[in-house]
Amino acid sequence: MDKTSLIGITLGVAAILSGQVLEGGHISSLVQPTAFLIVVGGTLGAVMLQSPLPVFRDGMRMAKWVFVPPPSNHADLIAQATDWSHIARKEGLLALEERIDTLPDPFMRKGLQLLVDGVEPQHLRDVLEVEIDAWSAQRRLGAKIWEAAGGYAPTIGILGAVMGLIHVMENLSDPSRLGSGIAVAFVATVYGVAFANLIFLPISKKLLAHVASGVSQREMLVDGLVGIASGDNPRIIESRMQGYVSRSR
Predict the structure, then answer these.
(1) Max Cα separation, the chain?
(2) Each residue of 68-79: pLDDT tens digit?
(3) How confident is the model at residue 40 (pLDDT cuts 50, 70, 90)?
(4) Taking Cα atoms as reference points, which of 130, 121, 131, 95 lies closest to residue 237?
(5) What does the CA dihedral 240, 246, 247, 249 come to, rounded to 10 degrees?
């Protein structure tokens, strides 16, 4: 559980509601189901319109990373690659074959399989870097779904405000209906700006940070595998991989 995300969103919402109360307003005046429907439904529709279904689906699935980040296992990868390098030096690359099926990650399985197959170090790096680029591009598109939502929400909030004002103008002769129209107008704007800046854009930035971390892990593993394929000393491989940990902090 990413406690920073939980604390951040709680703090943001609490600050806004506290400000409303301190200014003498009522929290209930910020609860407007019609404005919520216009902003959230309109934003969702706009994002779906601009995105292919697989990209939209990836973006929705990735949202859980905000609170449950993907495992970051730099230390485990370094230990594993160092262990592989010791085995390769003592027993040869083929001794690693039995370990391929035990790996949970498809990228690791592919990398180790290429190593066992005796692929040249530079060719091994080239093949795996293509895999990394494809993985990164797909995940970045998913994260940008949320960035797009952050761009649309304020504008749709303004649309809700205009609709509320039209409703007001239509009922100038009935003062009892003016209040609800004005409330929808202003609260829709608040919802649009708040959803964009408290939820959608921060989610996008956090997902992009997790993607960058995932790319770093994969690049580190590629460096380790290339080192093993080149016959480097295990200590040199470990030291080089440790450099990625320092960069990711």
Answers:
(1) 91
(2) 888 777 888 899
(3) very high
(4) 121
(5) 150
